[in-house]
Amino acid sequence: MYSNGKTSTAGNEPVAGILPSGPLLRARGIAKSFAGNVVLHSADLDLYPGEVVGLLGENGAGKSTLMHILSGGLQPDAGTVEMHGQPTHFNTVLDGIEAGISFVHQELSVIGALTVAENLHLGHMPKTRAGFVDFQKMRDEAVALLNRVGAGGIDPRHEAGTLRAGEQQLIEIAKAAGRNPRLLILDEPTSSLTPHEVEGFFAYVRAARAAGTAIIFITHRLEEVLKLCDRLVVLRNGAIVSERRPAETTRQQLITDMTGKPAIYEYRERQIPDKTVALSLQRVRDRDHLEDISLEVRKGEIMGLFGLVGAGRTELLEVIHGARPLASGKIALFGTPVSHRDPSAAVRNGIALVPEGRKTAGILPQHSVRDNAAISSLRRFSGRLFSDLRGDVTRMEDYRDRLGIRMARDTQPISTLSGGNQQKVVFARALMVDPSILLLDEPTHGVDVGAKSDLYEIVAREAERGLTVLMASSEVPEILALCDRVAILSKGRLAGILSREEMSEDRILTMAFMEH
Amino acid sequence: PEGGTVAAVENTKGPIKIAFLSFQNNPFWTPVTEGAEAANDYLSKFNATVDFVDLGNELSAEAVVAGIEGALAKQYDGIVVVPIFDGTARIIDEATDEGVPVFNIVAEGATPSNRLAFMGQDATSAGKQIGEYIAKKMDGKGKLGVITGYFGATQHTQRMNGALDFLKANYPQIEIVGPFENKDKAESAYSLVQDMMTANPDLSMVYVTAGGPFGAAKAVKDLGLTGKVGVVGFDHTPDNMQYLKTGEMVGLLDQAPYQQALDASVMLYNYLVDGTEPPSKVIPVVGKLLTPQDVQ
Amino acid sequence: MSQSLSIVRDLAKHREASVLVMLAAVAIYLAFASDYFLEPRNLLNVGRQASVVAIVALGQALVIIARGIDLSVGSVIGLSAVVGAILMRDTGSETIGLLGGLATGLACGVVNGLLYTRLRINPFIATLGTLSVARGIALLLTGGIPLPFGGFAEFVGAGRIYNIPVSFLLMIVLAIIVHIFAVKTVTGREIYAIGDNPKASRLAGVNIRSIRLFVFALSGLLAGLGGLILAGNLASADPNLGVGYELDVIAAVILGGTALSGGRGSIIGALLMALLNNAFVLLGISAYWQVVTKGLVIIFAVGLDGLQRRGDDD
Amino acid sequence: MSQSLSIVRDLAKHREASVLVMLAAVAIYLAFASDYFLEPRNLLNVGRQASVVAIVALGQALVIIARGIDLSVGSVIGLSAVVGAILMRDTGSETIGLLGGLATGLACGVVNGLLYTRLRINPFIATLGTLSVARGIALLLTGGIPLPFGGFAEFVGAGRIYNIPVSFLLMIVLAIIVHIFAVKTVTGREIYAIGDNPKASRLAGVNIRSIRLFVFALSGLLAGLGGLILAGNLASADPNLGVGYELDVIAAVILGGTALSGGRGSIIGALLMALLNNAFVLLGISAYWQVVTKGLVIIFAVGLDGLQRRGDDD
Ligand SMILES: Nc1ncnc2c1ncn2[C@@H]1O[C@H](COP(=O)(O)OP(=O)(O)OP(=O)(O)O)[C@@H](O)[C@H]1O
Ligand SMILES: Nc1ncnc2c1ncn2[C@@H]1O[C@H](COP(=O)(O)OP(=O)(O)OP(=O)(O)O)[C@@H](O)[C@H]1O
Ligand SMILES: [Mg+2]
Ligand SMILES: [Mg+2]
Q1: How far apart are CA A255 and CA A244, in angstroms?
Q2: Which of A165, B157, B229, C84 sits between 20 and 30 A of A429, alpha carbons compared?
Q3: Is the CB of A315 inside a 6 Å radius of any atom of ligand 2?
Q4: Quick check: C293 contacting B, CB < 8 Å?
Q5: In which element (H, E) is residue B179 found?
Q6: pLDDT in tens, chain C (314 residues)
Q7: Model ipTM?
Q8: Does pTM surpass 0.95?
Q9: CB atoms near residue A357 (< 10 Å)
Q10: Which N-terminal residues, if any, form the signal peptide (chains C, D) (predicted)?
């Protein structure tokens, strides 16, 4: 532990009597089901020290569940886990941590009220002789830790709650790193990181590997696993279906392993016959971030919104959606000026939003899947007095099929769905409104490749039928795959709009850096 | 003065300021306030003022202490106060030590203090007075339900025990049901009487020691037991009096609050001017027991 | 996280069950210990005694479900009764008096809602403020002196239909209505959504301001109704009516297991408390033990199921 | 319920500044309206009158920060005073009496903590239960009759050092200690952590059970101390001492802006309320207007900053 003063070395002491060549952890026949719904059939997995294993699979394949079992957060229904050749059983997560397993969860869980340094030391804060917290020591160690994971830019004195999602993610990674674990599990750690942050993070992973840590890396970004991992394990329908070396495989192959079918979305040339302007923004400003943004989106068009972190994409979408007050400027829908003071008014006018931040702004965690999907369109379908409860059931069935939502029953709490499936439910919610304008904010965060192409397909199909889409995204390939045009924001200003023909990764990025 | 029994002496001292500290939360306090106003009117002719200081609507020792502290800070010459609680003795002594005499009225705690005098009804003997009346009404036998305001409130407990000790000693055939706490609430008294009648259909009298006796009377009325079950309690407030007329209430003991307020203020004034001590350290006020005959 | 949430749900489910068990236990014990307990008349008395707390708790439950709290209900009870009585006295019309009382409750609720949604005052503080202001106004309006309050209100508060107390019937009917409202209507479902995740609900198009305003208004309205029943029962509108009710009402809601409660829960909670008071009188429990017992029963009612669920935190 | 509690916490963040402004406004107004207000003696009185609520609020603030609530403080005040007085009377030793009083408070707090952490009873219900049980025991122990309570306790409650009330000094010292504790010690930081995210804190190795037990124990201990001061001030240990204090204490905490408070906040909140009571006495405001004014001041104190922070929901 670094609190004992060993901050600089990232390795474990070699354990006497253990052959370095034997697996650190060996899982055999792991099975798990929830209320009769089988999630893991019989998964076998070996992990060796000094190895980075990429774990791939569709949403709901059981990746997070398997990791919870390995780390002690869940108990398997069947199967055994051995560490260093010894049968092991963790009753709680704390047991797992004790044994050297650190798990960075898919969902963020920093303590917003504490500073970054305090977060990193929670559970074992250093003390001065007088018995107080040794803030100086804690800060110094925090700086070292943050540097280690490539997050040197974060001030350890800041309150963690005020940081961006990506920065919070890095804090969690740093925290896990600080434990110098034997096994480090990273469940979609990069989904909210900037490209620059991803580089720093990769550097840390490589250093940890060199020091002998076994690492499991879960992501839906195939480029990342191909770049970073030593071995790729694909989980499909609760069983391991393939193990490959990155050098010996391709993107396409992995997708086939994951989904059982080759799936990739290619941009299809589309004509937008309708010249009606569906959404127009004129010199839109909010209180503090956006400056004079003017933009027109035609009916049936898919308009991308690109920018670096902090460019103001979320703010812009929120202004259109009425969630953030418009300070000046005009917004018009099909030529009619509107000023939404509340998202409820926007939804009534046919503007639906799939927000960024599934856990905080997307799901209603204690509600069922069905209720989550229905919440936006309750008023649309209600009778005079009563809510259309029966209709909710059929609509849910419909959208489960259309979006391929994987669940046991639509009455299960949404928080028991896998991350990607939760996102699909939020998508279903927005589509149920039958909007004329769909605002998407990082809609494919944590969504698997198969589902991504499903979602692209759905968005394109709806656009074909006249839906206007404005999609904020940090992934250029996504923009290239889907959008007819892209607007690029840079520090709250509109840096420019590129048409299909003008779009290229280079140009988009260059424009995004314009104000920097 | 009208309604009072003590006359003021000629003021030879220059302006005199008296603070009159009292609560205000139910009709009982209305005559107290009026008495203080009357004292002010009367004494203003003698170059003295009686300032009514409201201690609020929640009765507590802390409020009395804060009130006296405030009055001392404002340099009043004397204080009339409704101390009620045991915990007020210390601050009363402190005021007295500072040369500000304190006159207690209505009710004071059991702990002795160096107040100039206390005027009021002794709660225990008031309880006994009611107990005698109850025994008479019940012919010395039968079941008596007891509802007290707050468990642990000295005045309520003394009124209760004053009656119960008397009854136990002299009328062992009277069976006591309770006591139950109604927190001075009429609606709670109502429910308690309902339940008491369920468990004791032969109940013939209910004694409410503090707030809300009319709730008990209303329950008697709603149960159609007027004339069979009687309620006794304290204070001539309008809601209580109403049931005295209709017969559910059979006895109400009054504390003559108006007179207490007025007389105490004047006596304190006299003491401040020429050192006339009140007639005794404890000036008992014998309550007037109203019965249905009195209002017919 | 996912596990912890389902535990929260289970907990709310079990809580209701464990309070029901406690309710049944007390009732069964009483049935043996007292000859009078099972008499229909006594049971109906218990129902009536629970009715005001239960009716006010129906509104409070929705407020709490939507993540608010309404401490002002006790004072609103008093103010509504007083305004109703004054209007009845001055206009001579019972209808105006009753409607005026209800409107007062509603107005108090709306004020609470606006303080919360417009001025963004924490509902605990906002309703603590109106608790004081409403009580003060009731005292000012009456000079602290109770007013007579009779007629139809007295029928509602103390009357009986086929021997069943009107206020008890009203409680049952309202509980059913509120339950259906909470579970089956759009607004009801939106209330639950807001309570679950206000931010997500807002972005999904729920008008959280108006829903919040609505729940506070409803809570005020039901407190106003409670005031009319209480004053009607006593045939007297006392400005001090309802002092301290807030804790009883909130306790009823929580005992009833808010999460599920739409309506059922609140009644169970209120009944348990009324039953206890009934038990004290029927069994003649000695004075101070009443106070102790009340606390113990509340703790046990909820603690029962905690005993089985050892082992897991949060 | 924990939802509504967390809202209590969240919204309390910005509060402190605006309550300070209100405090200053009332003070300035009083300085002009009353010749006596600025007299040192009066100011010290205000400080003394705030001291019990403030001291108890220090513990309550930590409980609320850790997502709990302690409704039992009022009863613990009464029980501790009574036990202290009985021990003092029976052993003749002041020390034993005082320590016994403190130990009683501590024991009540530990019971609350265990009910919450071991039996998993919602703290609102658990402490509502102990509210009743503790009061009942105080009544049973005394038979409802206040006991004399003097000696050193009276010095603490009513004495002065260089004319400064001892209880006021105690309040200042304790506030500083609690503040430093909350901000600078490991336990203090962990209290904030579990209030923010209990699950993540537990996984980080924070022993949330023992921390929760600790905050309830501390709250009980400080309530016990409050009881001794109050009884000492009155030279009388009344079993009804502290009835209804829970709302005042919680209001002080929230007015003071819990989130920041570690100590400061609670004092500001308690001072505002004591100042109001002082104003009522100095200005001779009538009782009913006092009630109205109190509510309005509370609302405005907190509403002030709501007015500026328009626009963003949740
Ligand atoms: N507590 C639970 N109760 C019921 N079902 C659950 C629970 N936890 C997980 N599941 C189900 O198990 C399946 C696997 O979920 P898991 O989170 O492991 O998927 P994943 O592979 O991590 O997907 P993603 O990439 O979307 O995060 C899902 O269908 C999910 O609904
Ligand atoms: N209240 C706040 N306190 C601190 N920073 C804030 C606050 N609100 C917004 N920000 C920051 O302002 C920047 C703009 O946010 P916004 O979410 O609009 O950017 P974006 O272009 O959507 O990028 P991304 O969503 O990828 O972060 C972000 O860095 C965000 O962290
Ligand atoms: Mg997952
Ligand atoms: Mg964004």
Answers
A1: 13
A2: A165
A3: yes
A4: no
A5: strand B174-181
A6: 333 333 333 444 445 566 777 778 888 888 888 777 888 888 888 888 888 888 998 898 889 888 888 999 999 999 999 999 999 999 988 889 999 999 999 999 999 999 999 888 888 888 989 999 999 999 889 888 888 888 888 888 888 888 888 988 998 899 889 888 888 889 988 998 988 888 999 999 999 999 999 999 999 999 999 999 999 888 888 888 888 888 888 888 877 765 444 445 566 777 777 777 777 777 777 777 777 888 887 787 766 655 544 434 44
A7: 0.82
A8: no
A9: 18
A10: none
Give all chains having 3 or more CB-to-CB distances under 8 Å with chain C. Answer: A, B, D
Give yes or no for residue A238 CB within 6 A of ligand 1. no
Domain range summary for chain D, segments of one domain joined by +: 16-313
In contact, D91 and D97? CB cutoff 8 Å:
yes
Burial class (CB in 10 A: 0-12, 13-18, 19+), B12: exposed
Nearest ligand 2 atom to the CA of A316 is 18
3-class secondary structure per residue, D197-248: CHHHHHHCCCCHHHHHHHHHHHHHHHHHHHHHHHHHHHCEECCCCCCCHHHH
Rounded distance between C-alpha atoms, residue B125 and residue B133, angstroms: 12
Euclidean distance between CA atoms D207 and A123, whole angstroms: 8
User: A133 to chain D: which residues are within 8 Å by CB?
Assistant: 184-186, 189
Strand partners, B203: B143
Q: Is residue D151 exposed (0-12), middle (13-18) or buried (19+ Cβ within 10 Å)?
A: middle
Distance B41 CA to ligand 1 centre (A): 82
Distance C147 CA to ligand 3 centre (A): 65
What single letter denotes the amino acid at residue A472?
A
| Strand-strand pairing, A468-472 and A293-298 | unpaired
Sign of CA dihedral C141, C146, C148, C152: positive
CB A423 within 8 A of CB A356: no
Alpha-carbon distance of B36 to B4, in angstroms, equals 11
Distance between CA atoms of C120 and C117, rounded to whole angstroms?
5
Which residue do the tokens 């003295």 mark? B48
| DSSP 8-state code for residue D193 | H
> What number of other Cβ atoms are within 10 A of residue C293's Cβ?
19
In chain B, what residues touch D41 (CB-CB under 8 Å)?
Answer: 72-73
Asked if A35 is an interface residue toward chain C (Cβ–Cβ < 8 A), one would say: no
User: Closest by alpha carbon to A392, among A358, A416, A423, A368?
Assistant: A368
pLDDT digits (tens, 9 = 90+) for C153-204: 888 888 888 888 898 899 889 988 988 888 888 998 899 898 888 899 999 9
Two tokens, residue A145:
């830790």
Query: Which residues are A108's β-sheet partners?
Result: none
**D92 alpha carbon – ligand 4 mean position (Å):** 70
Domains, chain A, ordered by start: 1-100+181-264 (3.40.50.300), 109-180 (no CATH), 277-512 (3.40.50.300)
> What number does CATH give the domain C16-313?
1.10.3470
Please give the full DSSP string across C74-92, using - where no structure is assigned.
HHHHHHHHHHHHHHHHHH-
